[in-house]
Amino acid sequence: MTTQPLKNVLLVVEPPGFHMLVSELLKGKYNLHKTFNAAEGLKVLQREKDIELVLIDTRLSEESAVEFLGQVKEIGYENKIITMNTDENLSKEFAQLHVDKHIQVPFAPEDFILSVYDVIALPREFIRDQKEVNKKPNIKGKIKKMFRI
């Protein structure tokens, strides 16, 4: 049986403790490109053309996540984006920026892993349709088995 290459995920997560947590949850499941700020994240996106998901903690200190997402769009990145933050009011603001999913912090590790998998595995149109009708795809058992959760 041949194994498929791991999908490339860019982490833009600043606080070191949260960065470590997110990295550990995704380690071995994806090929992680880890950065601690927006400037590093943009450099990775410009250098690596096969990033399938940007996972950004919106609590950036040097520039706002909104500015970062605008720059991401300017350089032509068209793949999927997940934002993470403690402020649930921001999810509406980021939805207008064509973010595929907003994850509320704190989160249960299993829910986080499933959310990332959903966004990467499902076509963008399906993810957005599911957000609009407030439903989740019913693939939890399959994902648990796949990731041995």
Plain-language structure description:
This protein has 149 residues and is of the alpha/beta class. It has one domain: Rossmann fold (3-Layer(aba) Sandwich). Helix content is 45%, strand content 18%. The chain contains seven helices and five strands. Strands 2-1-3-4-5 form a five-stranded parallel β-sheet, sandwiched between helices. Helix 3 links the parallel strand 3 and strand 4. Helix 2 runs parallel beside helix 3. The longest helix is centred in the last third of the chain and has 13 residues. It is globular and about 40 Å long. The two termini are 22 Å apart. About 7% of the residues have low confidence.
Strand order of the largest sheet: 2-1-3-4-5
Give the amount of beta strand, in percent: 15-25%
- The CATH topology is given as Rossmann fold
Count of folded domains? 1
DSSP helix count?
Answer: 7
Shape, please?
globular
What CATH architecture would you give?
Answer: 3-Layer(aba) Sandwich
Q: Span from first to last CA?
A: 22 Å
**SSE series:** EHEHEHEHEHHH
What is the typical, i.e. mean, pLDDT?
82
The computed structural class is alpha/beta
Q: What's the main sheet like?
A: 5 strands, parallel
Give start-end ranges of low-pLDDT stretches.
129-139
| CATH C-level class | Alpha Beta
Radius of gyration: 15 Å
Kindly state the percentage of residues in helix.
40-55%
CATH evolutionary superfamily: Response regulator
